[in-house]
Amino acid sequence: MTAAKSRRRPGRPSNESGRKADKREKILDVAELAFSEKGYAPTSLRAIGAKASVNPALITYYFGSKEKLFETVFKRRGTQIVQRWDELLDELEARPGRPPTVEEIMRAYLLAEFELKQSGEGGRRFVRLQARVHDETDAMHFRLRREVYDITTRRYLAALERALPDIDPAEIYWRMMFVIGAFLYMMSGVDRLDDLSRGRYKSDDINELVERLTTFVVAGMSTPSTSGLKRSD
Amino acid sequence: MTAAKSRRRPGRPSNESGRKADKREKILDVAELAFSEKGYAPTSLRAIGAKASVNPALITYYFGSKEKLFETVFKRRGTQIVQRWDELLDELEARPGRPPTVEEIMRAYLLAEFELKQSGEGGRRFVRLQARVHDETDAMHFRLRREVYDITTRRYLAALERALPDIDPAEIYWRMMFVIGAFLYMMSGVDRLDDLSRGRYKSDDINELVERLTTFVVAGMSTPSTSGLKRSD
């Protein structure tokens, strides 16, 4: 695609491989919007084709199937988040002599997601799609979550275990689920805060959200293990 | 319905108004399952009719429209949760001399939901439906959440404000959103814990879940307000 782009000249139409790449990206954008609005099951290739002004057969030609199209859409930005997570944790762990604190680890984890939400229309679409993906219980969605997120999420869990040697590792895993639930809900675009507080408070300021959520999850992560449960290690 | 039931005799078919009530409940059960599995938009009255072995026209006759059917399904068990929430908070607030603690308030809030999940197949269906309802951003879902949950959720917020006089009320509202997100995720039936920990930990023990989640949210709720943000009151 880079080669194709570099051959384009101003004022002239792009060549054929450039047009193909553009069309492919357009289909992915349209599909991302459709899947994020309605979820996987009710979205048809025919509807995506109509919105992208292409024949559904072309979508199948490019991507193979609806499932493959969805996978391509999800991984396109999913891998961006994961790269950013890795980068942020790499930075923290590269610091000599002072291992990352719980607050630093949690802030990095939340930041990568909220940065994507702030990155423009496509980021917002993906964030909504991701909230849907996390809510599905079929085999395809499980596989995609596993393939995209697991290795990096386990890196964060390992960093938390090192930062919290007195907390039962089982409890750290459980707490990570609570963190994921809290941030997915805040990213889903459902502004219950506005609703419940009758407009007194709003959750549209991303910095405020990251700060308040970090305070909450750091306290939850760091509090002593639940008593009365068997320690797992 | 009670009068109709009392007129039934063993070994004899139920009378007509009893059969109607049974059929109505059956449609609600089938609709609850269908909406919880696929969500509102992709579920048709025709599909519900087929599964309940009734003509879709009969569903319209009983309930008016797909939206009204959904509302009836959602409110049937939604009002149960809200009643249980009110009961539990009433008990805590009736105790003389010792106002409810953050831990008591949070445990009551989580317990009502998890009790419903444990109450059988219908409870489980509803809990899944509710997770879907919380993830939708259209006007109907906003209205239903507002009508069913808001008054009681504000009672819990007011109790938390009294138990946490040093925390900025805005922060208590925000934190309630994080609590709702965390428990909805744990109730959605997506067992990421099993997946991420490669089977080492499982989230299928409701008591363990309530204990660990209570520890987490009590710590998050009670920690000092986020510094560097303007206090709202």
Residues in helix, % of chain A: over 70%
Low-confidence stretches of chain A: 1-13
Which structural class best describes the helix and strand composition of chain A? mainly alpha
Strand segment count of chain A: 0
Report the CATH superfamily of the domain at 70-222 in chain A: Tetracycline Repressor, domain 2
CATH arch. level architecture of the domain at 70-222 in chain A: Orthogonal Bundle
Taking all Cα atoms into account, the compactness measure Rg of chain A is: 21 Å
CATH topology of the domain at 70-222 in chain A: Tetracycline Repressor, domain 2
Q: How would you sum up the major sheet of chain A? A: none
Order of helices and strands of chain A: HHHHHHHHHHH
Question: Given the C-alpha coordinates, what overall shape of chain A results?
Answer: globular
- The CATH C-level name of the domain at 70-222 in chain A is Mainly Alpha
Question: Termini separation of chain A (Å)?
Answer: 51 Å
pLDDT averaged over residues of chain A: 87
Strand content of chain A: under 5%
In DSSP terms, counting alpha (H) and pi (I) runs of 4 or more, how many helices of chain A? 11
Largest interface: A-B, 64 and 64 residues
User: What oligomeric arrangement do these chains adopt?
Assistant: homodimer
